[in-house]
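Section 5.1 Outputs to date
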Amino acid sequence: MGLRMVDAIEITTKNKVHILEKLLGHISKKGYGLVYTQFRVESENTAFLYVELENVVDIDCLISELRGFSGVMEVVKFFPTDEIWGKRIIIIGTGIQVSQVVLGAITEADRHNIRGERISIDTLPLTGEKNIIEALEAIGYLPRVSCIVLAESEIEDSIIGVIDEIKNNYNIKIVGLNGNDSLINHLDLVVTDPVQAGVMAVMAISETSNLDISRIKEVL
């Protein structure tokens, strides 16, 4: 498999109807793979389209072409978000448990990032089965997610169903705090100590760590 090359550009446009469709349509006709895109409106007259593209033959040529579109004010080249922000860990669960997982994750991520890696930590303190399910179902819309830590002492059967969907559809590792032995078949790793769960979540996605959690088949 060849090296995956990703280029990123930001297009400043006049906030006109159909401008997004025209720009992405042109990119699509060029045959470039769309990795990630985000559109935001700053005012009635200005909007920004951020695009990450795969295996672009000549990014400078594409930028020149896009600058020629009516309504385009500027096109500039950026570093892709994964080069800036790196891999992303999202910690979801009750507040006290989340804070302890974060303690371990940030401490370990700092150790790896000092050596040149990029691992970022996001938190979402939540209570209630419904709220957690909604958060998990939205994971697929978020960029750069490499690992989820479920900072819950008890994981309901309905949440297990969403875990299976994530594992089937996305390349995301899932770490849990629940000590139920049956969960090992659904989670990638179960670590009952929240601080250690944060540490091991970082090690599981680190490029410099020797930890292979697929070989761990027991609750830690």
